[in-house]
Amino acid sequence: MQVVYFVNSGSEANDVAIMLARLHTKNFDIVSFRNSYHGASMGAMGLTALSSWRFNVPTAHGVHHAMNPDVYRGLWGGSKCRDSPVQTSRECSCSEGHCKASEMYYGQLEEVFKYSLPRGKVAGLFAESIQGIGGTVQFPKGFLKKAYELVKINGGVCIADEVQTGFGRTGEHFWGFQMHDVKPDIVTMAKGIGNGFPLGAVATTPEIAESFTQALHFNTFGGNPIALAVGSAVLQVIEEEETQKRSAEVGSYLLKKLEKLRDEFDCVGDVRGKGLMIGVELVSNKETRAPLPAKSFTDIWEDCKDMGLLLGRGGLYANVSFFFITTSH
Questions:
Q1: What are the pLDDT digits (tens) for 130-160?
Q2: If 138 and its partner were Cys, which of 82, 115, 131, 160 is the partner (CB 3.0–4.6 Å)?
Q3: pTM surpassing 0.85?
Q4: What domains sit in the chain, N to C, each tagged with a CATH number?
Q5: Alpha carbon distance 240, 275 (integer Å)
């Protein structure tokens, strides 16, 4: 990828990616996954399939939400299905190198192409490498690679939403999509690129970027000198302080510690993630996976804050904790 278009946020980046996909392919329909979050603008909200993040207003048309390939809460999945130091406690009949859950979820995606898209043609597929706001949900092994192949066959482009997973957050790779062994056509990014400063970007190929020459497109503050200076400084710190390496080391340590808590406490249903993109799903019943009520989660959240630990929260039921910590914690 040789072309970068700078914006101010992840929502803007995904809006640009929608337009590029449609202009380049001359197709209209977009596919994303249930439980995904891609932003709060009218366009990005259409991609988003989390009811807690959608308002009762018109959003982007022509978006289809495929079944979410969640190996913990979904129809299929088990203890060998995801690329993580910690696996779900669900039983699994998969063999090494062959994930049955991946095949079943892929079959559901094929159904969307077969029944919902005009002649099967698609403009693009949006996918987070790990679903962030949705609760740090990881796809089963091999699923995204097969999904990308399906999109290519049907005339579309593949868009990697790296707003949360990019810049070494997942530890093993700089970009989250690399863990899936895929090559997207468009990559959207924000958050980590500016370390809190309003900065986002869309990276793509010259061929796809050429689509923007059909008319004028302008962003008043996108790519302003101060924002780019901040982004450059962030990249320097990431390299000099080896934050990606630290994410891998601290993340693996933390995941193993959290796995022990999952096995010890009935309220911890699942622990998952890569690097320092980690989620802990709290439940009221481990067998049924019934989510912990929001009020109970809020009480735990406040107790942690009083003890000096700040947690994020996500998931459809707002019962998944996010961790941003070091081994000293």
A1: 999 999 999 999 999 999 999 999 999 999 9
A2: 82
A3: yes
A4: 3-240 (3.40.640.10), 243-322 (3.90.1150.10)
A5: 18
